[in-house]
Amino acid sequence: MTTSTVVRDMLRGASLIMMVACSAGHAIAQEAEAAPPPAQEETVGDAVTAGEIIVTAQRRAERLQDVPIAISAVGSDQLAQTGANDLSGLRGSVPGLTISSSAGINVSNLISIRGIGGLAIPIGTSQATAFYLDGVYLSRPDAAFFGLDDVERIEVLRGPQGALYGRNATAGAINVITREPGTDVRASFDVRAGNFDSVTTRGSVSGPLGGGFSAGVSASYDVRDGYYFNVASNARVAGWRGYTVRGKLRYATEDNDFKAIFTADRSHRRGKDYLGQQYITSNLVTGTFVGIGNPDQVNVDTLTDSLTTTRISSEGLSLTLDKQAGAFSLTSVTGFRKLKSFTIYDVEGLPLSLLVSGNDSRGETFSQELRAVASLGSVRITGGANYYREKASVRYTSQSPLVPLRFAQPYTETEINAYALFGQVELDIMDQLTLVGGLRLNHEKRTFLVDYTQGLLPLGKGQGELKDTALIPSVGVNFEVNPDILIYGKYSQGYQAPGYNAFVSPSGAGGINTFDAEKLSAWELGVKSQFLDGNVTLNLAAFYYNYNNLQVRTAYSSTSIVINNAATAKIKGIEGALTIRPVQFLTLTAQGTYLDASYQGFCEPITNGSPRSRNALCAPGIADRSGNRLNQAPEWSGGLGATLDIPLSDDVALQANALYSWESNVFYSAANEPIIGSGGWDRIDGQIGIEIQGRLQIFAWGKNLTDKRYISYTTRAAPAFAQRGLNDPRTYGFGLRFTY
Question: For the chain, what is the domain count?
């Protein structure tokens, strides 16, 4: 792109933001005069004194340090300082969180918490990590990677969360909470420009409308050129363009005992995904590979390049009603969401029009949750009921660009109806000691269709139904040594419902391939502490997980991922997070996780995508994966950060932050082949600038400043090929941010 193109994109993004904000801003201006800067008061999600962060992880507002859960909260200021465009910006900031891009293979990101991962396109199965946007469950990771405009905070909960969350979560939950409009006029605008002709703009405006009503509108727009250079077409490829728009209407009574919030949002991204470098292997057993070419280059012929495309759109409506009555509160959350993703990519990665594959994925979800909270002196009770329905479909296509004949066109569709009752009781048996008990009753019914009758090789058609009911308990004990030190211990269970393999031909004697429910028993011991008037915060947690029937992905090819049940698996680990404020203008942070995560008993069929490697045999054609590490489970990971905020005068302050993060090697298959892994990585991100009158910030930013490249996702396509994607190269630029 030329300089004029960059300027045009900056203006286009600003125009979009101003257009969606203008009508709301005009109405707000009619009702409120310019407000002074907001007072420094304790609000949910904002750190106003050392360590004072308020979260709603237990469905009520609490200090982060008072919540007996392994939880990290990333506020709006931290998101702005790190320049996080979406959830991938949390890398290096949250203990135990691993995010791997899928290299264009299925247009998604793979999320893992404490070594427990999930599928990118989870049709036929559920997600180990539950994603929520303002209390509404998002069924797929695709829907969770939207622009983070006007976000108040992101809460990352680690460990099973079935007792308090409408959709059971085995690995943990990620809650994105956007800002509510209120009685004050608030506005912000953020624009960033950088190399690869990247431009990101965000803006929001909110305030009162009168009569108890308030409204807010926010939007973001981002565009960048591609990170890869296509040798065949002599042009950069894999660029992206996208936007997010969100509107909120809020009504609250004068005494704030009742409020209703209606939200509508839409996100859309469009670009091209490339698999990146191809490898050739000379030995299927040893996995010896020889690399080809430059890691920043692809070599895709012009015809295939013209077909390559990716489009992802997500939209939703939600209504949240909240009634307070003394010690009781009742909340209703109703949500409807739609997701569409479409991608076509080059399979062989060569300058030949041999084979392209793609998928068209669609999904609609409806959820209704009712929950009540009662605080009765020494007893606190939280209970709820949840209904969830999902209708989803995916059609895969594989063909040569030179001929119209489609070799395969498998199609699957499924519908889930899930019901749950959940609750938790906290009993203070003495001033410092609290007992906690939780229970979840989960029932799920799934119907499905798998159709292999289209394409060159019709291989059958079948349908089926799965039902399962599970009772999921949790118990815990909390001991408050003093107001600044909390020790907690808990036992909980995790559960993933049974499912089916959408892209296994139903023509065989066994019919459609299904897999059993997985179950997790989790023990955790943690301490949350603060010292020196809150200037030092240290949180530690040790955990032990025991899996039965673990659901494991096995790659049969680049387009065929099959889930099998491993017999058992164990995860042991320890994690910690430290924050130190040695002086008023400096904050130092550190976080780290150690994981020992391995299969205890797993005999896996040997396939093109998952060869024997160096493993022993359970039987002919079946490899023994016992002792191998789980997918996306790094032994070590962590981050070190520093933030400066130094006053230079009454109106000007110097602000800077830096984050060094790292992760040891992770594998992307149970075979633990060295080449089907990341190799480990470390990176440095940072930002420096000045703030004027507490409102205007002008800064320079950089990500992956040392330009270290690593493999962000790998899968085998065949015995002779592996497909991989790389992390982003060094990016840098400048920006400004204005808040009101």
Answer: 1
3-state helix/strand/coil string of 675-737: CCECCCEEEEEEEEEEEECCCEEEEEEEECCCCCCCEEEEEEEECCEEEEEECCCCEEEEEEE
pTM of this structure:
0.87
Report yes or no: 503 and 132 within 8 Å, Cβ to Cβ.
no
Give the residue from 147, 75, 83, 94 showing the smallest Cα distance to 685.
Answer: 83
Identify the H or E element spanning 81.
helix 76-82
At 23, phi and psi to the nearest 5?
Answer: -65, -40
Indicate the residue type of 697.
Answer: Q
List beta partners, residue 433.
Answer: 479
SS (H, E, C) 307-347: HCEEEEEEEEEEEEEEEEECCEEEEEEEEEEEEEEEEEEEC
Determine which of 108-122, 221-235, 254-268 has the lowest per-residue pLDDT on average: 108-122
Tens of pLDDT along 623-651?
999 999 998 899 999 999 999 999 999 99
- Residue 49 structural domain: 3-739
Tens digit of pLDDT for each residue in 336-372? 999 998 888 777 666 777 778 788 889 999 999 999 9
Comparing CA positions, the residue from 70, 44, 89, 45 lying closest to residue 577 is 70
CB 553 within 8 Å of CB 119:
yes
Instruction: Please tell me the distance from the alpha carbon of residue 196 to that of residue 335, in angstroms, as a whole number.
Output: 38
Give the β-pairing of 129-133 and 172-178. Answer: parallel
Which residue carries 């591609």 as its tokens? 226
Q: Is 50 exposed, middle or buried (0-12, 13-18, 19+ CB in 10 A)?
A: middle
Question: What residue type is 540 in one-letter code?
Answer: L
CATH of the domain at 718: 2.40.170.20
Confidence of residue 29 (pLDDT cuts 50, 70, 90): very low
Joined tokens for residue 147:
């622009």
Which residue's entry shows tokens 């010690």?
327
The percent of residues above 70 in pLDDT, for the chain, comes to 84
Whole-angstrom CA distances from 478 to 57, 160, 449, 450, 699 are: 16, 17, 47, 48, 44
Question: CA-CA distance, 302 to 119, in Å (whole number)?
Answer: 31
CB 440 within 8 A of CB 424: no
